[in-house]
Amino acid sequence: MNPFVEYRQHLDTYQRAIELGVSDAEYVRLVDEANAAIAEVDGVSFVQTPLDQVTIDGRTLAVKIETGAVGGSHKARHLFGMLINLLVSERVNPNHAAPELAIASCGNAALGAAVVARSANRPLRVFVPTDANPAVLERLEHLNAIVEVCERESGEAGDPCMSKLQAAITAGASPFTVQGTLAPESIDGCRTLGLELGAQLTAAHIAATDLYIQIGGGALATATMDGLARSGYPLPKLHPVQARAAHPYVAAWNKISHLVKGPMTRAAAAALVDEHESAMTPWPEAPSSVAHGILDDVTYDWKTVAVHQIMSGGYPILVEEDGFVAAAAALATQVTPAPDETGAASVAGWLADRRRPADAVSVALVTGARR
């Protein structure tokens, strides 16, 4: 089952295509052809990923597993949604220009973008930090991505890769990235994860009360909660998970948490967060953690994450370094392909949660394979 076909009526890209005069049959054919091209490049295509159970320290947890997905993580969902949006534009207007694509990433997002771009024969420029995984860099080169290593200047605030990406966009490149603030279309593709999860939980008769999602830039949590809502599944409490070593989202949340007296409507929560937009500031020092994939200096989509958290009545969780290591080790024998510490971060948050009631029914995402 291709989730981009199965759940198309819940996706903004599909609605836009229909409004532009693309028929349902044309849309399905376009998506199926693009998905077949993905399989030629990556060996796998977009299909429904598993919802399974793991047992850690005698406790059972439902996990949505993305490690065997395209590019080895959930990230390619974001980028495939953007590609479909681009293909729709070109179908409607054959003269639509195809600019160079660009992304800033240290790992899974870059791989997802490179797989998707290669499948459509689009040029991709990738801005990576100096400590990027050599295995990732080798795969990017194999996928014909143009890689630029970005060094952090002394006293520089914020991610130097993002600064380079912004400059490339100003020069004419198209953002092919997973930050909803830069590329709103990137949220739509990963809504398929939440839509799938809602359908799977319903079919398994699991009434989830708590959902743990790691937070880097925030697009994953935004998209998953959006998708769950569109599936009609009752929303569980959202618990954003970050590393104690670098936690810009939690730092911003702590500045406004005293203003939240309980669950709020979407409109009220959005108004509160918009009023305190300045609460989000770049992490003051170069971030470092074994969960390197969630080390964004800024949680770019923090406002949408906060709205979902407020609406659901959830709370954020900080994880120590050994917590990420322990979670990855516990999942290594239960999940195939095994996740790295970033991919296991949501489970680490579940393990670290001391406020969870004994009768809670919890779900976590397992998102990225170990390279």
Question: How would you portray this structure in words?
Answer:
- The protein is an alpha/beta fold and 371 residues long.
- 44% of the residues lie in helices and 13% in strands.
- The chain contains 14 helices and ten strands.
- The strands form two sheets. A six-stranded mixed β-sheet has the order 1-2-10-7-8-9, with helices on both faces.
- α2 (12-19) packs parallel to α4.
- The longest helix is centred in the first third of the chain and has 19 residues, at 24-42.
- It starts with a helix and ends in a 5-residue tail after the last strand.
- The mean pLDDT is 95.
Short description:
The protein contains 14 helices and ten strands.
- The SSE string, one letter per element, is HHHEEHEHEHEHEHEHEHHHEHHE
Uncertain regions spanning at least 5 consecutive residues: none
For the residues shown, what is the average pLDDT? Answer: 95
Strand order of the largest sheet: 1-2-10-7-8-9
Question: What structural class should be given to the helix and strand makeup?
Answer: alpha/beta
Q: How many strand units?
A: 10
Q: Into which percent range does the helicity of residues fall?
A: 40-55%
Strand composition percent: 5-15%
- In quaternary terms, these chains amount to single chain
Q: Which geometry do the CA atoms define? A: globular
* End-to-end Cα distance: 26 Å
Q: Major sheet: size, sense and barrel closure?
A: 6 strands, mixed
